[in-house]
Write a structure and sequence with these properties.
Layout: H1 4-9, H2 12-21, H3 26-36, E1 43-47, H4 53-61, E2 66-71, H5 74-83, E3 89-93, E4 106-112, H6 120-133, E5 134-145, H7 150-167, H8 183-192, E6 197-204, E7 207-213
Parallel strand pairs: 1-2, 1-4, 2-3, 4-5
Antiparallel strand pairs: 5-7, 6-7
């Protein structure tokens, strides 16, 4: 296991190609996510924005949108700004678990392939903060790696706990290991966090999009 920020920093150069060509459903997922952004969205929060692959598609539809992006890896944020130097983007290098997301500031929030590393409890806490950051009627769009069977989810979480224990890794530090939730659990967590509705609207292989409304 590698620390989360180190894992992505070491893979910046080939990241875009990997996501677009090797992770099934992602190329289509970026396009679908952009299509789901409401036309009247003026302020967007992007959690785990990385190099901005989802923003590449969103800016095609909404070139004047104002974006706040949060990511752990500065080198990825640097790549994003190289691609979109003329856009209204505020970038924050840090953890979206720690950064202030504000209150009723955003019309829409998105995350793409970043939430499948965290426990149910951490997600619920974060989703409450995302919900609070959205204006009334705001939309959160999550595209992530999800599984269908509970046995698969249980296996990944069990293996993560086992490996962390063997390596004596501190509980309060993020290390890269995939712990995907089932689609039904993911929807349940979002609703538990206070979203009025949550539904799956896209899935190719394990790449899945859920829309959740405040």
């Amino acid at each position: 296991m590698e620390r989360m920020s180190d894992f992505f920093a070491a893979r910046v150069e080939g990241y875009d190609e990997h996501m677009l060509t090797e992770v099934e459903g992602c190329r289509e997922g970026y396009i679908k996510m952009a299509q789901m952004i409401p036309e009247n969205c003026r302020k967007l929060l992007d959690l785990g924005c990385g190099t901005g692959l989802e923003l590449d598609e969103i800016f095609k539809r909404l070139p004047d949108i104002s974006v706040t992006g949060i990511d752990l890896t500065q080198s990825m944020l640097d790549q994003l700004m190289k691609k979109h130097p003329d856009k209204d983007i505020k970038l924050i290098c840090g953890s979206y678990f720690d950064e202030d997301l504000g209150n009723e500031e955003y019309d829409c929030a998105v995350s793409f392939q970043t939430m499948h590393h965290f426990s149910h409890e951490l997600k619920e806490t974060l989703y409450r903060r995302i919900r609070n950051a959205l204006k009334d009627g705001g939309l959160y769009i999550e595209c992530d790696y999800m599984v269908e069977n509970q046995a698969d989810e249980d296996y990944y979480f069990s293996e993560c706990r086992r490996i962390r224990k063997e390596l004596n890794l501190p509980e309060n530090e993020f290390y890269h290991y995939d712990t995907p939730c089932t689609i039904s659990n993911q929807i349940a967590i979002l609703k538990k966090a206070g979203f009025s509705s949550a539904e799956m609207i896209f899935r190719i292989e394990n790449t899945t999009i859920i829309l959740a409304y405040k």
